Task: inverse folding
């Protein structure tokens, strides 16, 4: 039986129309629900939504094979820090989890390698400092502290992802939010510049005391970088998770957990525990002549 005109008009594709958006999509600028919308502009704020259907990844790091790796990395870092609204639009496109993890590990190395270099500069400026610290425990303790620092960075950059997969989002949206959360550690790349600056300043001011002029300002800058990471995770959470309760968890609970576990638990707690265990074993042996 042939279709009537009204049935035919509903079954045929209308030229220029776009498929309706999913129920859990919201405008990244104003938060307007895009449910059932077929227009390419948000009816509330007028934002052009063509990036949702675009086949070009929004994140430069995902285009690093077309760009060079260094350029793609730093473009992504600057995008996360200074253009976070545009960065969060990637939530509306497929996001590569493996690329996000690779970015996270490159960011970890941007901190860890300069930190080891800083340790070498400290040894150069104060040759007796590390040997004196290793007298009671041995050089294994210095290596253990370095490994704890690496573990702390892994926790610092990985733990936030556990706050980005609420069950009220579809599995696809959860995966995208988790992947974007790994990019929230992008400001850590700035720590490489700060640490290298501290090294140069310490060497140049070797004859003077570099503590007040170099090391203390550098430590304050590193704390500022961690605060910037916190704000970037908050922005990513507010533009992907939407619900107020989950956003408060990201802003309030997540930093306390990350700092408590990553910094006090691993970077300070584990070395202190190992140090006191080593002292106890050393005393049980009766010292050097035991």
Result:
């Amino acid at each position: 039986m042939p279709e009537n005109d009204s049935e035919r008009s509903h079954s045929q594709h209308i030229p220029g129309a776009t498929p309706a958006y999913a129920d859990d999509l919201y405008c990244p600028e104003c938060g307007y629900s895009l449910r059932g919308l077929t227009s390419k502009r948000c009816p509330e704020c007028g934002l052009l939504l063509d990036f949702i259907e675009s086949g070009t990844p929004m994140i430069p790091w995902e285009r690093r094979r077309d760009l060079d790796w260094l350029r793609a990395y730093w473009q992504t870092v600057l995008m996360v820090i200074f253009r976070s609204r545009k960065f969060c639009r990637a939530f509306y496109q497929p996001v590569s989890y493996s690329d996000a993890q690779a970015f996270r590990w490159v960011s970890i190395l941007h901190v860890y390698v300069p930190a080891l270099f800083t340790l070498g500069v400290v040894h150069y400026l104060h040759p007796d400092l590390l040997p004196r610290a290793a007298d009671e425990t041995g050089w294994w303790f210095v290596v253990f502290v370095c490994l704890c620092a690496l573990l702390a960075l892994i926790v610092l950059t990985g733990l936030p992802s556990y706050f980005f997969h609420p069950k009220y989002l579809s599995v696809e949206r959860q995966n995208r939010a988790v992947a974007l959360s790994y990019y929230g550690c992008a400001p850590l790349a700035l720590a490489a510049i700060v640490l290298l600056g501290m090294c140069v300043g310490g060497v140049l001011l070797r004859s003077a005391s570099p503590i007040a002029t170099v090391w203390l300002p550098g430590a304050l800058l590193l704390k500022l970088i961690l605060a910037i990471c916190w704000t970037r995770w908050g922005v990513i959470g507010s533009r992907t998770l939407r619900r107020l309760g989950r956003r408060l968890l990201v802003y309030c609970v997540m930093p306390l957990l990350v700092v408590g576990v990553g910094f006090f638990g691993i970077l300070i707690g584990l070395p202190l525990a190992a140090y006191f265990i080593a002292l106890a074993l050393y005393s049980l042996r009766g010292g050097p002549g035991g």
In short: Residues 14-53 form one domain. Residues 1-17 have pLDDT under 50 and may be disordered.
